[in-house]
Amino acid sequence: MNYRSFKIRLELNNKQVTLAKKHAGVARHAYNWGLAICKKAYQNQEKHPSAIDLHKKLVREVKSVYTWYYEVSKCAPQEALRNLTKAYQRFFKKQAKHPAFQKKGRKDSFYLEGKIQVKNSKIKLPKFGWVRLAENVNFDGIKNATISRKAHHWFVSFRVPRENYKIKAIENKEVLGVDLGIKNLATLSDGTIFTNLRPYKKYKRKLKIEQRKLSKKFKKGQPQSNNYKKQQLKVSKIHYKIACTRQDALHKLTTYLAKNHSQITLKACN
Q1: Which residues contact 236 (CB under 8 A, 6 or more apart)?
Q2: CB-count exposure of residue 251 (10 Å: 0-12, 13-18, 19+)
Q3: CA–CA dist 209, 212 (Å, integer)
Q4: Which of 22, 41, 123, 178 has the fewest CB atoms inside 10 Å of its own CB, making it the most exposed?
Q5: What is the 3-state secondary structure (H, E, C) of 181-193?
Q6: 4-14 pLDDT tens trace
Q7: β-bridge pairing 263-268 and 175-180
Q8: Residues 6+ positions from 65 with CB-CB distance below 8 Å
Q9: Pairing mode, if any, of strands 144-150 and 153-161?
Q10: β-strands 3-11, 129-133 pairing
Q11: How far apart are CA 70 and CA 129, in angstroms?
Q12: Cβ atoms within 10 Å of 22's Cβ, excluding its own
């Protein structure tokens, strides 16, 4: 069965944000704990433990010590260990570098599975209950979801069977040419022009100022202060705004092309 993926911003309250951070923290702790064991086994040329072996060891040795593991869904550490096994598989096939330890606040995410419902502008997640969505959608057939954080926003990603998602038929059958450029994002053969917004150039000076403030607050070899964390969030918000502006421009272009034309030819500048 074919699936269609969606990623929607969550509108979490303070209690839900705290719970999301706990899930992400447990997933990161399980990943780093498993990585330390796998790294030692690799250095000693011992048999590489599987995700199942690591999870059994985690339940036996870690959960009894760190009781906050029971405050979150068991799926979060389980999926983290599965991701670690996949990372080592890519490493052994020489498709990626050796897995690195995860840091707090960088690519925070966790996995949930169970009874997930999406109705109007809310989604029901295990351990969280009903959570508000930034969009009004209705889907069925969701079995699992991934929650991730980018800057100060949390997002939910899930897959929906294509049979539950209807695509409007394209009426315009004309062939359209697309010239991808630098000055303009794209020039279409029918004369339509999509301008290149260049968000990095727009926010470059502001980003430079905030990054300079961040570097002054950094203390090497010492725990970072709350002021450093606040400034770090300011920098991440600017990066997030730049990324969203780029993504929005691309989405508008691809949506226009997909909705209005059935055959497209591309030409990229050298």
Answers
A1: 151, 152
A2: exposed
A3: 5
A4: 41
A5: CCCEEEEECCCCE
A6: 889 999 999 99
A7: parallel
A8: none
A9: antiparallel
A10: antiparallel
A11: 17
A12: 17
Distance of CA 123 to the CA centre of its chain: 18
- Are 141 and 147 in contact by the 8 Å Cβ rule? The answer is no
Q: How many CA atoms lie within 13 A of 187 on its CB side?
A: 9
Q: How far is CA 211 from the centre of its chain?
A: 23
Model pTM score: 0.79
Phi and psi of 108, rounded to 5°? -65, 130
H or E, element range at 231 = helix 226-260
- Mean pLDDT computed over every residue of the chain: 88
Give pLDDT tens digits for 130-145. 999 998 888 887 889 9
Rounded-to-integer distance, Cα 211 and Cα 195, Å: 28
What is d(CA 137, CA 165) in angstroms, rounded to the nearest whole number?
11
E strands of 162-209, at which residues?
175-180, 184-188, 193-195
**How far apart, in whole angstroms, are the C-alpha atoms of residue 235 and residue 229?**
10
CB 252 within 8 A of CB 197: no
Let me know: does 73 contact 112? Beta carbons within 8 Å.
yes
Strands of 122-125's sheet in order across:
109-113, 144-150, 153-161, 3-11, 129-133, 122-125, 117-119
